[in-house]
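Ticket #4471: complex job returned nothing on first submit. Input attached below:
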Amino acid sequence: MSLLQINEVTHSYGSRTFFNWKDRSKKVLNDISLSIDEGTCLGMLGTSGAGKSTLGKVILGLERPQIGQVLFQGHDIYAADKHIRQKIRRDLQAVFQDSYSSVNPRMTAERIIAEPLENYEKLTAAEQKRTIIELLERVGLSERDLNKYPHQFSGGQLQRINIARAVSLKPKLIVLDESVSSLDMVNQALILGLLKELKEEFGLSYLFITHDIKAAYTLSDKVGVLEKGKLVEIYDSKNQFFTSKHPVVHRMRDSILAEHPRFRTIR
Amino acid sequence: MITSIRKMFISQKIIPICSIILGILFIVTLLAPWIAPNDPIAVNLAYKLQPPSVEFPLGTDHLGRCNLSRILYGGRISLGFAMLIFISSLTIGLIIGTYSGYKGGWVDQVLMRICDGVMAFPSLILILGLVGIFGPGLPQVVLALMLVQWVYYARMFRSMALSLKEQNFIAAAKISGSSQWKIIRNHIVPNVLPPLVVMGTLEMGWAIMDISAMSFLGLGVQPPAAEWGAMIHEGKSYIRTNPELMLYPGLMIMLVIVTFNLLGEALSERYSVKRRS
Amino acid sequence: MLGTEQSNVLQVNNLQVQVKTKNGASTLVEDINFELKRGEVLGLVGESGCGKTVTSMSILQLLNRKSTSIEGSILLQGRELNGLGEKGMREIRGKDIAFIMQNPMNAFTPVFTIGHQFIETIRSHTKWNKKQATELAIEAMHHVNLPDPVKLLKCYPFQFSGGMLQRVMIAMAACLHPAVIIADEPTTALDVNNQKNVLYHLEKIRAEYGTAILLISHDLGVIAEMADHVAVMKKGRIIEKAGVFQLFDEPRHEYTKKLLNARSKLQFYESAVHLA
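Support reply: We reran it on our side without changes. The output follows.
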């Protein structure tokens, strides 16, 4: 049984309302089925508007799809009872694209990371503080950052705090929704490196949603391609992605910029 | 004088100045029972309409009561109850507004329609209604103002909650397992309050005006209790001979409201500048 | 065909920018020296916050005049820009030196049509009438492969996608054939599919008009594709300057090596690309 399985998920926005009888809905996700095994990372590539973020929200339990099921460890997350949903919640975490809007600007780093711990673990104040310090150190920050506010951190540092929060409960699956796209190249590489280490250390699974092929490759075991709400293909290996003749994939590969000036295609 | 106030504004010195003035006023009126020279309601017709003296620092009114003592005791009512109205309507508005904005859907619709209904009701009519049932008195005025004022705050808090709930950190809080009340308490309220505290200082001024106006009309505080609006009401018969009976309480009202307003404006200016930088 | 002139179109010497803070003057960038020749592309690369944008803003004299002080020499076609008043700069900006900014959505006023803004820009620098300016605008839009320019000019910014708006911005920047174009992270806000497109159009302008380009980016891929020379910035200083091939093959500074390694950490199968 795979960790996450979604079946025939279809979702649209802008459907009928009281004053708007005509069905003006737009299918954002169209008949999507995929699965993620434990300890693996599925990269989901696609241009903006392809439905990637909506897929993330549906999988996280934030948006119920109109058609289809989302099964986490065998349980339908939208149909399960409260007790099971609570249990699933701790195992399904996320890191979003914009690090600043992902944190409450009035909370210190300590309180931000403490939130999931307070909800699920019964730790004493001292134990909790120690756990938080360990988490901060694990993501490359330090005890000195405990009492700082979000505006005192750079984008990259704040994203590390978001990651610390996401792994604090040792979840099973983390949805990375364009988690490095707002960072500059150096920080991207560093954060991707951190995510890779954490994956191995804690046996995490990731759904890595991104438009950046290179980033997807660093982290993913399998790669899927989403285009206009439909799942074009899921490739079991990076090699398969590269050698695919599908026009959407071909277009994506063409858009990759050169690694070295001798490979340049524009000049 | 206008330019010097403007200059004070720009240098933001106005905030500590206003805060000190208001602080003094609050403390002094709070300590009225201990520092007032005389009993504010003690009538003594032998001393009526006396000019300022050692025994009566601000003179006496038409019933021989000490003006200064009445000002001090009156301040307790004006400021104290204005504070009460402000805090209670803010609290009710906060709870209803944030819950309504966060929850959305039919809960939001129902609560907002209730707000619309209450808003359509002028506070004056409500006061007159309550006065009609219970007779004139301060509790009626305070209750009516509380019942009407919360709606304004509720709408403000609701619209702020609406925009806040789309932010990623709310989704992150849900993903962290926080219940909806925990989210409202820890994430929505702290981000919604600060700008409104600023607005609140301006509101205080209005609350004082309302109480004084009602008392002036004879609907609020009843004699012999001292209250600034009521004092103006009683003093208006003597406007030609002893204008100070109206001036003292009138100036106090003006002082408090102007100070609150200047403070509120300066705070909101400071707040928006902080946001920008 | 590039011109045979070898003189520098843009020459920056000892540029230093300081900003006045509560605690005195704080240096944003210092000791900045570089030059641009006709038809050349200089890539300015570094992490966010290293001073790339401050440098470009100071060339355009768009920094806050009251709180920032600019020292050093900025020569555009032999003319000193530092110290030139706002009136003088307004004549130069758009005509002799143009700017393409990172987020195209922010570059346009939402309440006027694209045509209105485009034509206004042209007419503020030339003596042409509305009809002539419109023709130039249409031609410029054709040049960047925007379909049906006549119709597009009547549209509002919100009706365009990011990639299209960026192309409009390029069209506007290039239509008066400025000597220098400063492109500040022109691809960062765009989708991968549009990135190469934008760079392609920049290259077209460079090749046809001999425009010199100061290309600012944190993405070394953009630099690899476009630059002739590269200046690497860190904490307000240029720490390495070299020809693009030399920089990629033999980086000297530790930081440059770190930047280059960051990219190869994004494990990429180079050989596979060139098979497909």
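The CA atoms of residues 69 and 243 of chain A lie 32 Å apart. Closing as resolved unless it happens again.
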